[in-house]
């Protein structure tokens, strides 16, 4: 037997992947994708002009695929962190359901497919923005910022705020004030949302070595920043109504939702110790999701109502 043949016989048998379709779906972070898809849909509906339903569905599917690609690439890079954190230890890579190379291949393939399809079938401005969104989330936030600075969420929030801008540009091929308002709302929503999570998951982040604000600056500093960002968020969300960009239904919804958001943020600021502090952070985290969905839903319903003919 030759040396080459003996080496071949010593090689281990090829690994058979144990991944199921649900494991690949989990890689795309479907809960995050649902929020991305909804905000993108609102941006698409708000955009002026006629847009063929097939193109609208194509644009939304591409944005969803792009978000899924970013999620998969995030899990590929952060597999070591995910394995250390209780909240993420059940993800497909730490569980051994999917290997890191498989996740990398899946993420890159999905990213290329989403961007190229959006460019060819819709327009290349939207495709370029989608490519930038994926790049920002994976490279700027995941690879560069997350392990280096407590401002990771603040800067990284740019990626999560861009889907409605991508959707608007898919319809119009340009930008305007309205999608930038939507961008600003999501951008200022991101820090209080994630820092509330970090408050009651502080030990998880500390053990994994992730420099979230409560870990680096302390919980009290994080509570103050949550309150300040919540004030800015509510002001940014309400302002488009008196400025004439969005209607009264949206404005009233923004006021009511904002009042609840501020009350919960103030409660987080006041409750400093014990189980009450953790409960306050959890309440704010959970409501912040409701806040963003409800705010965009009010905007969507107001726009749809304005377009429907009303019989007098």
Give me the Rg, rounded. 22 Å
Averaged pLDDT: 92
CATH topology of the largest domain: Tetracycline Repressor, domain 2
How many separate structural domains? 2
- Strand residue percentage: under 5%
Judged by helices, strands and strand pairing, the structural class is mainly alpha
Q: Globular, elongated, flat, extended or rod-shaped: what is the shape?
A: flat
Q: What is the CATH first-level class name of the largest domain?
A: Mainly Alpha
Which homologous superfamily in CATH is the superfamily of the largest domain? UbiA prenyltransferase
Pathway: Porphyrin-containing compound metabolism; heme O biosynthesis; heme O from protoheme: step 1/1
EC number: 2.5.1.141
Membrane topology: Multi-pass membrane protein
Transmembrane segments: 32-49, 55-77, 98-118, 124-145, 152-171, 177-200, 221-241, 247-269, 289-310
Write up what this structure looks like.
The protein has 312 residues and is an all-alpha fold. The chain folds into two domains: 22-174, Tetracycline Repressor, domain 2, CATH 1.10.357; 176-306. It contains 15 helices and no strands. Mean pLDDT is 92; it is low at 3-9.
Keywords:
single chain, 312 residues, mainly alpha, Tetracycline Repressor, domain 2, 2 domains, 15 helices, 77% helix, disordered N terminus
What does the secondary structure layout of this molecule look like, with pairings?
Blueprint: H1 3-10, H2 21-27, H3 30-46, H4 53-77, H5 79-84, H6 100-121, H7 124-145, H8 152-161, H9 163-172, H10 177-200, H11 202-208, H12 213-216, H13 219-238, H14 248-270, H15 274-307
Helix pairs in contact: 2-4, 3-4, 3-9, 3-15, 4-6, 4-7, 4-9, 6-7, 7-8, 7-9, 8-10, 9-10, 10-11, 10-13, 10-15, 13-14, 14-15
EC number: 2.5.1.141
Catalytic activity: heme b + (2E,6E)-farnesyl diphosphate + H2O = Fe(II)-heme o + diphosphate
Membrane topology: Multi-pass membrane protein
């Amino acid at each position: 037997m030759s040396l080459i043949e003996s080496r071949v016989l010593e090689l281990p048998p090829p690994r058979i992947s144990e991944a199921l379709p649900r494991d690949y779906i989990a890689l795309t972070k479907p809960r995050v994708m649902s929020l991305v898809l909804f905000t993108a849909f609102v941006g698409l509906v708000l955009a002026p002009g006629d847009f063929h339903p097939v193109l609208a569905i194509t644009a939304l599917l591409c944005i969803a695929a792009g978000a899924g690609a970013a999620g998969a690439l995030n899990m590929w890079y952060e597999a070591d962190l995910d394995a250390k954190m209780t909240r993420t230890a059940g993800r497909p890579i730490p569980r051994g359901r999917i290997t890191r190379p498989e996740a990398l291949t899946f993420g890159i393939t999905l990213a290329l497919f989403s961007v190229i399809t959006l460019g060819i079938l819709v327009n290349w401005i939207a495709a370029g923005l989608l490519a930038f969104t994926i790049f920002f989330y994976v490279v700027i936030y995941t690879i560069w910022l997350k392990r280096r600075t407590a401002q990771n969420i603040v800067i990284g929030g740019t990626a999560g705020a861009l889907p409605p801008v991508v959707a608007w540009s898919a319809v119009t091929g340009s930008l305007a004030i309205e999608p930038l308002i939507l961008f600003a709302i999501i951008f200022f929503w991101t820090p209080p949302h994630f820092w509330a999570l970090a408050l009651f998951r502080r030990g998880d982040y500390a053990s994994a070595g992730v420099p979230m604000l409560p870990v680096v600056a302390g919980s009290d500093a994080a509570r103050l920043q949550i309150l300040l960002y919540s004030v800015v968020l509510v002001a940014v969300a309400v302002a488009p109504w008196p400025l004439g960009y969005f209607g009264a239904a949206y404005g009233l919804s923004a006021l009511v939702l904002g009042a609840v958001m501020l009350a919960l943020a103030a409660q987080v600021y006041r409750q400093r110790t014990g189980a009450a502090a953790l409960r306050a952070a959890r309440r704010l985290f959970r409501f912040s999701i409701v806040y963003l969905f409800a705010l965009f839903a009010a905007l969507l319903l107001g726009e749809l109502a304005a377009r429907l003919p009303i019989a007098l």
